[in-house]
């Protein structure tokens, strides 16, 4: 038990506080960067009420953290024991039907004397706080407005205040939904390839936003491995939903063949998926670029289909970069299109690199492929290539999802 829970009149029962903090953590918002969508709310509040200060705050176990704070020069963290918002959180449990806390003159309330600036010139006099809720309906923070003079809220102002708090609540819920979607999308990516004698493999997928339309997949088949990189047009949740559907269709086609003890070629798989996805892609006016291949590990032979994907190359052992032939249209562009397979062989020291077009943005202007070709030629080792790509993403926020799969046949000598 902390000192705060011993002395604070607004302390909650330990089991209640544990549930509340767990709900807060499920939002995955604490200590994230400022976002314009929350800044719009605080700017609107300051304008509508003619006040100097407004904030969206989250209340952790021992601190109050501001997701957005305007007009208060206090940083982003305050000890929870020195905030008025702790009283708003407590009131939510005491008066759930009337949770707003309105204090017309905080300087006249001795219980808030510990709050920095209360009663001082230019300090907080008026406070209005409304709880924000996390999963399970637990109060995890507040939308609050402040003034340096005592004041009250008229009935219409109170209505507006609650509406702005509801706006902040919707943004928090959207954050939770997106984070859950991002978690699901990450778990749909396959695990590491593991031991693949004679080969090294590295794969990565970094969405430009929380979720994206790129994905990669790989799984073992008799005598080798199947690799896929796909990119659904667009970004965000819509693209992510369609990406999951394409992934399921690809795996479904392969698994169905296994059940009847039949081996589907890469072109059969892609043509089957195109038929399955035709209605969904047509109704959403969306297309999918796709690179799908099967590697025979004994010989290094690769049978592949490039459906409009565009960036798939082989970096040879002598650092020469060979492009691949037989690029076809993306899925969803035209009906009644079929795709043919191309073939290549990975010699010892050769690396197959397949990337989404986000890599072109990362390494150039998004249209000129030459910088990307030069880059992969300098980094033929899969682990090194992926590590450097991750470092570039960390330095320069990508405009598009960045997905990369590299498969190298290791020299035996």
Automatic annotation (TrEMBL):
Tell me which Gene3D superfamilies the record gives.
3.30.450.40, PPM-type phosphatase domain
According to its UniProt record, what is one Pfam family this protein matches?
SpoIIE
List each copy of the PPM-type phosphatase domain by range: 196-409
> InterPro entries in the record, alphabetically?
Bact_Sigma-Reg (IPR052016), GAF (IPR003018), GAF-like_dom_sf (IPR029016), PPM-type-like_dom_sf (IPR036457), PPM-type_phosphatase-like_dom (IPR001932)
Q: Does the keyword Hydrolase apply?
A: yes
Report a single Gene Ontology molecular function.
phosphatase activity
Origin superkingdom: Bacteria
Occurrences of domain GAF (ranges): 33-182
Q: Keywords in UniProt for this one?
A: Hydrolase
User: Does the keyword section mention Nucleotide-binding?
Assistant: no
Listed name of the protein: Serine phosphatase
Which species is listed as the source?
A: Mycolicibacterium litorale
Lineage start: Bacteria, Bacillati, Actinomycetota, Actinomycetes, Mycobacteriales
């Amino acid at each position: 038990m902390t000192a705060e829970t011993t002395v604070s009149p607004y302390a909650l029962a330990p089991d209640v506080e544990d549930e509340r903090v767990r709900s807060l953590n499920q939002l995955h918002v604490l200590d994230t960067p400022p976002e314009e969508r929350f800044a719009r709310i605080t700017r609107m509040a300051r304008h509508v009420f003619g006040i100097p200060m407004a904030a969206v705050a989250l209340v952790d176990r021992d601190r109050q953290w501001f997701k957005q704070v305007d007009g208060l020069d206090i940083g982003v963290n305050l000890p929870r024991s020195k905030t008025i918002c702790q009283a708003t959180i407590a009131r939510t449990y005491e008066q759930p039907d009337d949770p707003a806390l309105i204090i017309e003159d905080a300087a006249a309330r001795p219980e808030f004397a510990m709050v920095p600036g209360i009663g001082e010139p230019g300090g907080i006099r008026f406070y209005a706080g409304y709880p924000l809720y996390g999963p399970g309906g637990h109060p995890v923070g507040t939308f609050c407005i402040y003034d340096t003079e005592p004041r009250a809220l008229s009935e219409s102002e109170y209505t507006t205040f609650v509406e702005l708090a509801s706006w902040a609540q919707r943004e928090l819920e959207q954050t939770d939904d997106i984070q859950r979607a991002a978690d699901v999308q990450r778990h749909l990516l396959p695990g590491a390839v593991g031991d693949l004698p004679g080969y090294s493999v590295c794969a990565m997928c970094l969405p430009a936003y929380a979720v994206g339309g790129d994905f990669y997949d790989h799984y073992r088949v008799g005598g080798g491995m199947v690799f896929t990189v796909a990119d659904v047009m667009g970004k965000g949740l819509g693209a992510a939903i369609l990406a999951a559907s394409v992934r399921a269709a690809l795996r479904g086609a392969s698994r169905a063949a296994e059940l009847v003890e039949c081996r589907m070629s890469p072109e059969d798989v892609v043509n089957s998926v195109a038929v399955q996805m035709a209605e969904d892609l047509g109704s959403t006016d969306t297309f999918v670029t796709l690179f799908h291949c099967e590697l025979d590990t004994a010989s290094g032979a690769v049978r592949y289909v490039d459906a409009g994907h565009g960036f798939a190359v082989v970096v040879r052992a002598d650092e020469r970069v060979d492009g691949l032939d037989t690029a076809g249209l993306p899925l969803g562009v035209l009906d009644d299109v079929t795709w043919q397979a191309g073939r290549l062989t990975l010699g010892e020291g050769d690396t197959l690199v397949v990337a989404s077009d986000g890599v072109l943005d990362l390494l150039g202007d998004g249209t000129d492929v030459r910088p990307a070709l030069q880059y992969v030629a300098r980094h033929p080792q899969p682990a090194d290539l992926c590590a450097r790509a991750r470092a570039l993403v960390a330095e320069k926020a990508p405009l598009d999802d960045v997905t990369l799969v590299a498969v190298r046949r290791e020299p035996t000598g």
